[in-house]
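Teaching assistant's notes for section 4

Start the section by putting this record on the projector. Ask students to predict, before seeing the second block, whether Threonine synthase will look compact or extended. Collect guesses on the board.
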Amino acid sequence: MTSIIDETTTSPVAESPARALVCRGCGAEYPLAAQHACYECFGPLEVAYDQAALARVTRGQIVAGPQNIWRYAPLLPVGQDPASRVTLDPGLTPLVSAPALAAELGISAPLWVKDDSANPTHSFKDRVVSVALTAARGLGFTRFACASTGNLANSVAAHAARAGVPSIVFIPGDLEQGKVITTAVYGGDLVAIDGSYDDVNRLCSELVETDEFEDTAFVNVNVRPFYAEGSKTLGYEVAEQLGWRIPAQVVIPMASGELLTKIDKAFSELVEIGLATAPSGGWRVFGAQSAGCNPIATALHNDTDEITPVRPTGIAKSLNIGDPAAGLYALEAVRRTGGWMDYADDDEIRAAIRLLARTTGVFAETAGGVTTAVLQKLVASGRLDPSLETVVFNTGEGLKTIDAVAGQVGPTYRVKPSLRAAREAGLLG
Ligand SMILES: *Cc1c(COP(=O)(O)O)cnc(C)c1O
Ligand SMILES: [Zn+2]
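Reveal the predicted structure now:
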């Protein structure tokens, strides 16, 4: 008998370490499929892993991988086979040292800005979309969709264009032009809804149940458990970029709260499987919202698990989820690690965008302004320890929300093109 496969030349594709979907509420387990809620308790489902498979992953294996999120494929539910990926190859974004910002805020320990605006569509959403759509294509879906506050629509439309798959993305009708144009340009269907993100999300939850949308993967609805896992790569990257250390404090923006819970999960996994070391007192997770949409932070401040939905307002539109799906789990992570949450109003957000830009050279969208403003408040209130290493996450690009600071900055001089005019304007001192 002859074998069709020449074992000396084919390299085997590693298997997924994912084992099942497990309910975050009651622990019920389901197969790895397009399902996001538990049939028993309606709780959200999350990917569970074969711990033994994770424990076999080595630093060397990761370091030898590609210069993007797929270096962490051994720790992700999908994408082990490069040919299976639906992706713009996001990730390995800069971890920027921020001594001038630290000095201005009175932080004595190292301060870092993880700048995820450097991703292909300029927000951290490329990470979650690459993982969700790779899962979606593997599960046989032939159209890609999402309910978005802006950046997600941008990323899904771009991924679909790259993969040559039709897309239909849903957004609230009042989004910034910088989010609408950067999505529409990719040529998929873009549906603006007269309503809030929470209205958009509700509609998408209904559409996904219809026969007409049977072949459509909504990245944050029916394949949400996979989408959520993509956020872990932000945590992995920070640890790797710090030399396989977990920082003592992290400050993370919250919309649904998912990103925050997954960075915490990534740190736990790395420590559990021995790939990274935890700081001596453990790490503390801090969450940031805007004053116009602060249901999770308010629940923490009121010392309750009751998250009261709000009707979002304010300029931090990418974070405007009034009924946050992972809010409870974000509260849990912040309480368990001894962190805190706070929120910033529009003026504080604008000032913080400028502060971050002026001290680090990073131009953040409004979400990054929220996070920087909250970092400032956490130092002022004593909740954040200025003597411990801290990483603050900038998740999006300032050019997409340019109106936030458009009225505040501009030329510092206006001068005729002559030496005399330059001298008269005071440019020569
Ligand atoms: C979506 C988004 C977030 C938060 O995401 P969640 O996981 O829903 O909390 C943060 N920043 C930006 C720029 C986003 O677009
Ligand atoms: Zn359940």
